[in-house]
Fold:
Amino acid sequence: MPDIECNGDVADDMSDATLREMLPRLYRFALWLSKDPSTADDLVQASIERALRYQHTRRPDGDLRAWLFSILYRQFIDSKRHAKRYARLLEWFRKADDAPSTERHVQARASLHAFEQLPEAQRILLWLVSVDGLSYKAVADMFDVPLGTIMSRLSRARGALRDACDGESRAHLRILK
Structure:
């Protein structure tokens, strides 16, 4: 492992406190990807280890969070290329209300189903921007594509999700008197 330099930006960004602050977000993303808590723990640990080992390769002006998410995502792809990835997002909807209404429950299921039907690239973009709150620039840096490309792909993903949700939710809801 290379020595950690104390030249300001890189060492400050990679401090113990900063990495500890990032762990819940990394774990949440890893858990979402792997669907297994122990696999998610291993994935986060391997990602942090890789980040510390290769911190000298990080661009000084780059976003640390995006860089860490990129490492985590690539670790997952390398280890689970053929595994199923997305099954339990309904829990995200249930956490919003302790006792959700039947209508909200049906809409949540329809949204989850619509989300699962999107292509993988669209699901990942929506997750990173909408759920984890990464900026468009951070995601563009993560995938090494122009900012406009991310904006365009995200717009198409949101449109596809909106279209799928509208069709799904109307098909399952009935008005009872």
Summary: Residues 9-79 form a domain with the Rna Polymerase Sigma Factor; Chain: A fold (CATH 1.10.1740.10).
